[in-house]
Write a structure and sequence with these properties.
82% helix, elongated, mainly alpha, 0% strand
């Protein structure tokens, strides 16, 4: 069994935390998300929220899970 590379685990956890953070901030205080505000001006509310949610919440969470799971599978845990 190989040794676990904690760098990948840490990057995965940070990506998941970032994705969850953007979900919480978008719900409680969307004015803090300047990119979302600009997107709303250019695309309209619904489309901007959909693109922002996917890009800044869903993708980081998936990316984080893939990093963590791939490291654990590589090490047969």
């Amino acid at each position: 069994m190989k040794e676990i590379d904690y760098t990948f685990i840490i990057i995965g956890v940070l990506a998941i935390v970032y994705g969850i953070y953007t979900i919480v901030i978008r719900t409680k205080n969307p004015e803090k998300l300047t990119k979302l505000t600009e997107m709303k001006k250019r695309m309209g509310d619904k489309k901007a929220i959909a693109v922002h949610t996917f890009s800044y919440s869903v993708l980081p969470i998936i990316f984080g899970l893939v990093f963590i799971v791939s490291e654990l599978i590589k090490n047969n845990i």
